UniProtKB/TrEMBL annotation, chains A, B:
InterPro entries: Ala_racemase/Decarboxylase_C, De-COase2_CS, De-COase2_N, De-COase2_pyr-phos_BS, Orn/DAP/Arg_de-COase, Orn_de-COase, PLP-binding_barrel. This is ornithine decarboxylase. Its EC number is 4.1.1.17. One of its GO terms (molecular function) is ornithine decarboxylase activity. It comes from Telmatospirillum siberiense. Its cofactor is pyridoxal 5'-phosphate.
Length: 375, 375
């Protein structure tokens, strides 16, 4: 809770559920990242929170932008960023969207497959392209599966092919998994990347850029290392594997820039028990999995909660307001709440500035998407 | 595929992804249900597809409506249904929404807890209330968890309390789980309900209604029994446990009325392999888990797919277009697609008329919510 958010909630008393974001926190997080990783260019992952207030702030601070789609690129351009500050970082793009982005002046594109490379060669001739490397990501709370990236052998061949197709083979990207809690994962990933740099050098290609992806955490329920520990781990890995000859470094923070900046205020709609012999209370909030808390899927992201009331606490199952049985936030991972909690109380869900509003269902069960205020 | 949908797609060539719903199928499904279960009142579960075209059609056909929220009630009223055709079926309601619904003339409300009963007594005096009974639902593909309902002992006490609070203890509801494939589940549930009718009779309360919930399936990947088999199973259970003295019966179909009526047309954005030694192709569509296919969560609902092309097929992992690693549709449950499949091909996802549009994320990764056309 920041003073600005507290004041906003006290004075405006907005309808719940709502997200309130303190933009100063985002600015502070951006400055801290720039201070601890001065050699890296910051490409904000717009998908984490695409609000125009957030994008405008970061345009003003000098950030670059990692975008997933044409509408995200449109937003970033509309906020005043020049196209050379934009990376079209999705490896899954429609040909017509590549062509459109290229027309706007975007020149940096991700890929991880031959089919995507062919699209880029056709619709973005001469553009800088980087290949995403498949990583096995231990220690990430929101794991990245195998959806993105290809293995090192294929990445090498594709970067050679990129050159042959008239593109500029520019670098390698990877992602160690979102909300990554194990610092050693960057060492492994940077090591693999450095080997690829060498392999491509032997093929006459000098890669210029390493894109270290995201993965820096926000503070949820469990404590995480401070950002400077992450920065040190990254820089140690870079100097270990690249020596003094560091390539251009890019980071793509989303969660770590905006996660901590926001708080969702929700209301307790119902508290009940299923039978007389159960101790566990079911606490139903007016926000759930389909109203912005999608990352509670499989109880992956464990938000910190603040409930009013003093005195002893007891175990609760937390659920959302829809008629969907899957709309349960936490059941296996049992939270505790004051026994004095009552219907109508306000509960605050902390560090919800990232991956909440844009995940909201458009009108599931008739409920409106999550409202947000930027202060 | 119906002729109307085929014609619409051929003539209009809408941008993908999009859902096309044939309203005639919904009308046919409604008629079939009325024919096979003539003694039951149909309350359409609006959450399955809240499009105004669907609601208007069902208002015209004489359906009643199971609603989850104030906006759903507003929609049903706006479509011309009188308030006595509306059940406020969500057991998790804000007090102010109960009061609002009561002002509109809604007189039928669900509950499963004492706290909810207190709200109803205060804001909907004299209303008919029914208590939802907790069921363990084996055989349901979209299981209902323990989120809704209370056990039989508590249900009995709460219905007695309802009378004491000036409400009309009207009946019992249950839900055997959505997309329920085991016909015997209704027998178990009806048996439990009949015992509660008896117990309340002994307390001087004559319940009048049994709400059999939803659970009737749509046709996804696996074959399901036809609707008349379900109707027979339900009627057999009713006569077995209630004899000739049948209470008023209510059913709340959602999926079984509208599921089969719609088809999503999607485009293949990318086909790739992760390495040279893997046979499995990754096929990325322009729709995914956050664009309307939320029910692929944990690969629960397995849609039937139609892909173009002849010749041999091979295994695929199917994924959506966002940069979210969780946006994978089917990985464990491997689908087969023609080896000749190529980028730009159209893939049709069948039986997607229910639980798709309203689940769409509002703008995750910048992508628009799923567009829908009703023909």
């Amino acid at each position: 809770m920041t003073a600005k958010i507290t004041q906003f909630l006290a004075e405006q008393r907005p309808e719940t559920p709502c997200l309130v974001v303190d933009l100063d926190i985002i600015a502070d997080n951006y400055d801290a990242l720039r201070r601890f990783l001065p050699v890296a260019q910051v490409f904000y992952a717009v998908k984490a929170n695409p609000a125009k207030e957030v994008i405008s702030l970061l345009v003003g601070l000098g950030s670059c932008f990692d975008t997933a789609s044409r509408p995200e690129i449109e937003q970033v351009l509309a906020a005043g960023a020049s196209p050379d500050r934009i990376s079209f970082g999705n490896t899954i793009k429609k040909q017509k969207d590549i062509a459109w982005a290229y027309e706007q002046g975007v020149r940096l594109f991700a890929f991880d497959s031959e089919a995507e490379l062919q699209k880029l060669a056709q619709s973005a001739p001469g553009a800088k392209v980087f290949c995403r490397l498949l990583m096995t990501c231990e220690g990430a709370e929101w794991p990245l599966s195998r959806k993105f990236g290809c293995d090192a052998e294929m990445a090498r061949d594709l970067l050679i092919k990129a050159r042959d197709l008239g593109l500029e083979p520019y670098g390698i990207s990877f992602h160690v998994g979102s909300q990554q809690t194990r610092l050693d994962q960057w060492d492994i990933a940077v090591g693999k990347t450095a080997m690829l740099f060498t392999a491509l050098n032997e093929a006459g290609i000098e890669l210029k850029m390493i894109n270290l992806g995201g993965g820096l955490p926000a503070r949820y329920r469990d404590d995480v290392a401070p950002v400077d520990d992450y920065a040190s781990a990254i820089m140690n890995a870079m100097t270990k594997h690249f020596g003094n000859d560091l390539p251009l470094m890019i980071v793509e923070p989303g969660r770590s820039l905006v996660g901590d900046s926001g708080i969702i205020e929700a209301e307790v709609v119902l508290i009940s028990r299923k039978s007389y012999d159960e101790d566990v209370r079911w606490v139903y909030l007016d926000i759930g999995k389909f109203g912005g808390l999608a990352e509670t899927m499989d109880e992956s992201i464990k938000y910190r909660l603040q409930a009013p009331g003093e005195g002893p606490s007891g175990p609760v199952v937390l659920a959302g307001p829809t008629c969907d049985s899957a709309d349960i936030l936490y059941e296996k991972y049992q939270y505790q709440m004051p026994l004095s909690l009552k219907v109508g109380d306000k509960v605050r869900i902390l560090a919800t500035g990232a991956y909440t509003t844009s995940y909201s269902a458009v009108n599931f069960n008739g409920f409106e998407p999550l409202k947000a205020y930027y202060v």
